[in-house]
Backbone:
């Protein structure tokens, strides 16, 4: 259990912290103005491309990818504190470093399971930050935490696969730069429970793909993450070569994709919580009510202290999980991945709620990032399966020790 | 402590429940479509005018106003169960009955404190649902729960008052039909703590009034409540006759206005929570995961049971508060008004959070009303003063019993 | 929904409040000394007999019993505020008024279901406060919230019934004055689920009755309630006439007994919480830390305010439940009885926890009544079935509305 | 941040785990019987001496003491996982290893600050487990979390010091083997805030020492920890050489003593929580209600999962704190020591509460260790200063970063 930041991590942290101070934080108000002026509600701010260029120039690029050829070559434990830092400016920093969901997961899938042709066609431009991608798994009509519920069909027809079904919460798909979807569906509904599914690459402009609308989260479009699209696939035909890994491999790919995806979310949530705590402290110091700064009110002090205690605990569990993934593999870290999936969003939600309260009515508004970040944290109690499913599963494994 | 619904209440409840079933609930999807098609993001749906006409025809109009001449002539206890019912469709029903905030509070102020001229010019069209109004009290730069912080000035200059200052969270002011503002400011900053303030009527189209933007609550514009505007008053001049009640009366008017306003919010929150519980139950019955409806999961059952327990308790305290206001006056009900201001939003927030969780990702989206209602309930922990201020005040009164 | 205290209630409340001030509170330290000096750890303090005599003299006797011939002739709603007051001194006041559990429930059973002979032999001395009784239902080896689990047998053998089995948590049985047990067992394990059980009267001194030990609750023997005994029934023979109501009637009697029993507990818990809040306030005023009374600390004020809000809500739901039991019967009040069984102990536990915290280390000690009262409130989350069983049952009824 | 268990730790863990299995757990029922049969309620069970002998023989002795000459020579990080293990049998294991509070803290004080004579006379027999000791700091009449409140006087009179005052919660002092007290008092009430206090050694049999009674915690005497005595010091005279370190050093010694004391408590609490979770799982598997083991109920699964998440987080923060104390010193670890003081008892209390609930009524009784352990965990929210004081202090330090 060695979570120390090694020399490489420290060096990247220093570089990244400087990058945040010099480029990212100053770009926040710029981005806000650019978005306010944009006509396309899904457009990304122009300043982002500048940040991307700068990050790439500095070697702060694709850090998430363990493969040293294409990415940072970092372990999870090395990447964790960097992802945390990007969480402090979650609408700009992850994308600036080409480390934003869902591209990260999609690039991992292509790097691990893609054919050379698939990697050349889609992984390369993703790695270069030229296009973006979406992941199409959740469906509107069923509880998708149970993978056997998936209703989208992927049917072989000669040299092609035909895709039919409806997805929603396809994150990233509203982004104008989004060019490619990874779609989960069933190639064989009669196979074993976890061999029914497959994943296939569907270019966004394929005939029959109908991007219907973006789903909102607590009133936000989440445009900074490319939104969450509802998409109808209506007799969509793609070459058979677009299948990833093979028929029946979909569940295994999904599992491989989820582990890193979850921990990345949790790492960033630590950074989000840190930023919320900083904002809460600054506000408490500057805001005067009944003759003294609210920082001197006992209740506000309780929020601050309790936030610090919760953040510290959550961060350590995330780091331990990263370390376990590195040392015993994602499967060996299964319990811990679930534990942080359960604990971290709740922690961040709690800290954000108190930070909002300390900001008064401003806290729920667009004048501070807190309300939108709260919505993101709250939504992560549902994304990738509701907490309740994870708790049930974690409990069953705990109980097994005594059976 | 008699909270029984008397004959008049029962009759109105029956009528209102029928009105909800026949007109309001069917109008919900209509309104949604109309809003989606509207060009003005602040427009109200056309169907609302039909609902208003029908409600007025049925005598379900201005029920909130205790004055029998202009309103329902109901006690708080008689009005409470009716307001609760409107809370079940909070974006349509309160306004359909001309019982929506902030007009209700503004009409009360005019009915109680307005001159005949003021009542004729502004109260009459408000009572008729022809115009709407806004209440401008909170300011961006100070903790407004402390009334001495108010910085807007109302300065006598001959036959006029000149108003300078900035307000935000002026609810209702973004509504295109909003014609009149009640503005709180200081006429004498050197007077006693609670004699510095005054309220004045400012038509929305007065030169120098700059409605800058609508504040968001968790991504929502709250357009159904006329939004929450930031307004700059820049040397705004109105006739001296526009002053309500007199210089130095502002704090007293605000206090008189807040009691009923708070209880109306709480009544509607009970209805909101009931609707959330109904949606949670229906969803739990219809949603299947891992082979059985989630209604059979113990955790979901806990949410449902606990919701019922909390709703029942909150409703009774709201009813007791209404009864106290009727029997010993708003001042005598001070503790209870604070108690429901503290307890009811928290209760509704809790129930809504669980209902959202039972809905999966859909719960946070625009496909169900839950997320938006949650945002409203959460915001009420800040509106009219944050919970913490009310708890402090309530505790001090409790402690006084032993001093 | 009329919870007003009528004239009779007000008169009794006045009388009882005076009785508390003049006799009960002054007797508290006396009782404590007498108990400290007593050799028998199960002895009751001598001062209690004086309190009983005085209460009886004043007509504050057997108020719990709705039967006007033997008891107070009060409705549940009339009795509720009186029971609440006795809860403020829970180790003396209920017994002083002959209104202590489990005698109350046992007297109700005998009054409702007993034969004339049974009533003469056991109800009469119970009503006179000459003997005490115990209720033997819970068993150590099974989850007794599921009545079909009960393993004790009651077998007919000629003119006698033979009882075999082990009970625990037989409250009251350690009291030296306890003379009679009501024992639940099975007369026909093959009958329908709710027709297998019967109740039978077993004098404590019957051969084969072995009172093994008193169960502790968090270190307390609960001697003031006669403890909670583990009892072995080893071929215990009693006359067949000792059966109450008939074979197969046990479940129905248990149900009839539980409703009032639960609400009495809840009423007293309100009083307990009120006393805890009073102690918390007094302590907060008198205790100085870091230069000022802790009553001026925001966190302590939050505890006090939140306690008041929770107590008010809980009391109203208890009163509504009492009113419902009076007007639509125990069955009609089933949901509310469960709701207060779930909500009231949790409320009292919360208030007591905060009162303890405000008392520092003294709060957990014998120098204040708070820790022992906390243990009692906590235990009521398990007594008469754990909260979880009640929540499950309440949820199922709520869900039925939509099936 | 390297929390890995090194070779030495692993070796000691193996040895200790075997010792627990072979000696400690089997001794638990033996000790219980011996205590039940003992006449002196403060006696320690005979089996404990056997455990001590065995532990010493195996080199599992005085592990807490960093000084390799007298103790284990372990770092905090090495000792932490061992202390956790002893927490699984908290009434026997810590004392069996001569690692029980308050002796540990007292031995540290003597090792760090004692003169050679003091060490010879008192440290030696403590290290040999021949005598035990108490720490007398808290006073009944004042909030002792504020050290300036201390009222006990230590006055020089020739070659002696005269001690007057009343202490309570002097843990360990009821133990028949307790021979020596370390008493905190004021030598100079007019000195600077933190230079007023001193500590002095007072043999328990010194004339004028009156051990009045043991304080209870939730009904328990806590005899396994030597109880918590109220002690009157009435003109108690000891040689001037008994002063530790010097006049005015009392606060500094107390601070030095508290750091390790707090972390030891927290380490053991992790072990307590682990044992509670194990008991909860075992019970859930074996207990059948409504036709299936309660382990299959969703609510119980939530308790188990949430317990695991909370325990993991708390353990990591304790380990980090230990590591910080080793690397940057107790002062550098101040924030973390406070954080675990706040978070760990709350975590353990939560887990224990759920374990109790899963055990039904048995959970609150003497048949399972849960209720007593709960009382210990709850009390630690007050011991060494209430949570609120620590939160306030931690918040102030957090806020300082932005001032």
Residues:
């Amino acid at each position: 259990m060695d979570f120390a930041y090694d020399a490489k991590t420290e060096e990247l942290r220093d570089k990244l912290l400087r990058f945040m101070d010099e480029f990212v934080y100053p770009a926040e108000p710029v981005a806000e103005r650019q978005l306010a002026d944009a006509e396309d509600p899904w457009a990304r701010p122009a300043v982002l491309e500048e940040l991307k260029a700068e990050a790439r120039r500095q070697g702060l690029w694709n850090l998430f990818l363990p493969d040293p050829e294409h990415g940072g070559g970092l372990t999870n434990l090395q990447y964790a504190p960097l992802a945390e830092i990007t969480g402090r400016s979650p609408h700009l920093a992850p994308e600036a470093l080409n480390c934003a969901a869902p591209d990260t997961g999609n690039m991992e899938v292509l790097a691990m399971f893609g054919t050379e042709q698939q990697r050349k066609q889609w992984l390369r431009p993703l790695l270069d930050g030229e296009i973006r991608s979406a992941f199409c798994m959740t469906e509107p009509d069923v509880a998708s935490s149970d993978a056997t519920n998936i209703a989208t069909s992927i049917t072989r027809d000669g040299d092609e696969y035909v895709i039919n079904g409806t997805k929603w919460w396809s994150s990233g798909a509203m982004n104008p730069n989004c060019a490619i979807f990874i779609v989960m569906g069933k190639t064989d509904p009669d196979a074993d429970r976890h061999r029914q599914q497959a994943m296939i690459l569907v270019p966004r402009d394929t005939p029959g793909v109908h991007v219907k609308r973006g789903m909102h989260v607590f009133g936000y479009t989440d445009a900074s993450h490319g939104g969450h699209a509802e998409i109808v696939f209506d007799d969509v035909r793609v070459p058979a070569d677009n299948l990833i890994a093979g028929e029946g491999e979909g569940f295994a790919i999904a599992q491989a994709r989820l582990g890193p995806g979850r921990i990345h979310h949790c790492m960033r949530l630590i950074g989000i919580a840190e930023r919320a705590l900083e904002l809460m402290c600054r506000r408490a110091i500057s805001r005067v009510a009944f003759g003294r700064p609210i920082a001197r009110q006992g209740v506000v002090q309780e929020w601050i202290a309790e936030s610090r205690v919760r953040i510290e605990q959550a961060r350590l569990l995330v780091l331990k999980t990263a370390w376990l993934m590195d040392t015993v593999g994602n499967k060996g870290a299964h319990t811990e991945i679930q534990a942080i999936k359960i604990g971290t969003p709740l922690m961040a939600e709690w800290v954000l709620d108190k930070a909002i309260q300390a900001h008064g009515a401003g806290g729920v508004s667009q004048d501070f990032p807190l309300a939108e970040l709260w919505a993101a944290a709250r939504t992560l109690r549902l994304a990738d399966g509701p907490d309740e499913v994870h708790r049930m599963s974690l409990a069953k494994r705990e109980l097994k020790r005594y059976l």
